[in-house]
Design goal:
This is Membrane protein. The chain has two domains: 238 residues, no CATH class; 91 residues, no CATH class. Helices cover 75% and strands 1% of the residues. The protein is built from 13 helices and two strands. The protein has a two-stranded antiparallel sheet. α4 runs antiparallel to α5.
Length: 387
């Protein structure tokens, strides 16, 4: 088995480097603020709140990330960019929101209700949504539609919620009225943990998902006005739901929170889940139709389609490659399947009449990639693909 050719479609690393540097630079001051605000009580060090805040804020992160990775199985996004989405939410978005909100309090003297119900939703959703906007402008070719927008938005939202939960949990533990000595109030801490990490860990990913949907629509629509309007409408929906959620805590002595949870959050969350799962299932239909047409044009063997669009058969092919070709065989199989998937989505946009400006160049790159990798893979039927 010869050396596997490099993937020409993943040569642009500028975005990853620039955003990665920004994440690292903002992580230090944000972590410093978070740890200091949750570790210092009455001018003395009490790190228990910070430690508990980090540990308990991390609990919902793993299942939420796994859920978005599950949604992303048909056409997996680069793990480095998904990680950057988490980092953006946890550090860059938090830093931007803190700066704007702090300046507003100092200069505009916003009241606490205004800060909670209006300023926080506007600034936080803008800070989180900026990652999606940068993706749309800088690495548009990575976005194939609404589902990609939801996945990236979810990662940013999970990262933001993680850092915010540390602040709330650590602050609650150390800032109990009448205590203030760092001994902690486990009752209030437990209540905050249950409400934020168990009952509503999906809040920030849900809000930002609306922006992600708008970005996804902008990618696939053929209408110029909708390309501009869809992200704005998505952002407006994110701000509105976030504002209603935050503002509900100001109503009926806090009881409005429960009302909003039952009437707004749960239905919105269930609807978003149903929509996302439906979109995920429709991916197979889209890829099958697109690649079938591509096969009729001689771009890919028709017999290969099942090993690409069926997730179970796709995994069987990778296991077979691992058994017969080792790590190199698995790498080749993954690259072949990924190139075929990318070709499928690109060809689908061509069939819908809204191919991207670089459609021809990208299409040739994917077809060339398929031709280069095929000699290095074999399917469970035992037939080596030799082109």
């Amino acid at each position: 088995m010869g050396a596997i050719p490099k993937d020409p479609t993943r040569s642009n690393r500028t975005f990853t480097i620039v955003v990665g540097v920004l994440v690292v630079l903002t992580s230090l001051p944000v972590l410093g603020i978070v740890l200091l605000s949750t570790s210092v009580v009455d001018d003395h060090l009490a790190p228990t709140g910070a430690i508990l805040g980090v540990l308990f804020a991390a609990i919902p992160v793993v299942p939420l990330v796994y859920a978005f990775l599950w949604l992303d199985r048909y056409e997996p996004e680069p793990k480095s960019l998904l990680a950057l989405g988490l980092g953006w939410g946890a550090f860059i978005a938090v830093a931007a929101a803190l700066i704007v909100q702090s300046l507003g309090v100092l200069l505009a003297e916003w009241s606490q209700p205004t800060q909670l119900a209006i300023v926080a939703p506007v600034t936080e959703e803008a800070a989180k949504g900026l990652f999606l906007l940068v993706l749309l402008v800088w690495r548009r070719h990575l976005l194939d539609g609404v589902l990609d927008g939801i996945v990236y938005a979810g990662m940013v939202g999970v990262g933001f919620a993680f850092t915010e939960n540390i602040l709330y949990l650590g602050g609650t533990y150390n800032g109990t009225p009448g205590v203030g000595d760092g001994s902690g109030n486990l009752g209030d801490f437990t209540l905050v943990f249950v409400m934020r990490c168990l009952f509503s860990p999906f809040a920030h990913p849900l809000f930002t998902a609306f922006t992600g949907i708008g970005i996804g629509v902008a990618v696939v629509t053929r209408k110029r006005w909708l390309q501009f309007l869809a992200p704005l409408l998505g952002y407006a929906a994110a701000v509105l739901t976030h504002g209603i959620w935050n503002g509900s805590t100001l109503l009926f002595d806090g009881a409005g929170f429960l009302l909003a949870y039952v009437v707004l959050m749960v239905p919105a969350f269930v609807s978003m889940v149903i929509f996302a799962v439906w979109r995920r299932k429709s991916e197979r239909v889209v890829l099958t139709r697109s690649l079938t047409d591509a096969a009729q044009r001689g771009l890919i063997p028709y017999t290969d389609i099942g090993w690409v669009v069926d997730l179970r058969r796709r995994e069987q092919a990778r296991k077979f490659a691992a058994t017969h070709g080792g790590a190199q065989g698995v790498a080749a199989m993954r690259q072949y399947q990924q190139a075929a998937i990318e070709l499928g989505y690109l060809h689908w946009r061509y069939l819908r009449g809204n191919p991207p400006p670089d459609f021809a160049a990208r299409g040739r790159a994917y077809v060339d990639r398929i031709s280069e990798v095929r000699p290095h893979i074999a399917f469970p039927s035992g037939q080596v693909m030799t082109g």
